[in-house]
Amino acid sequence: MEIINWKELLYPYAQTVDELLLKFRSLDKECRQLGIYSPIDSVTGRLKRPASILEKAGRKQISPDRIEEEIEDIAGIRILCQFVEDIPKVIEMVRKRKDMTVIEERDYITNTKPSGYRSYHMIIRYPLFTALGEKTVPAEIQIRTNAMNFWATAEHSLRYKYSGNIPQDLQDRLKNCAEAAFHLDQEMATIREEITNAQRLNEIKNNLVANI
Ligand code: 0O2
Question: Name one GO molecular function term (predicted).
Answer without folding.
Answer: kinase activity
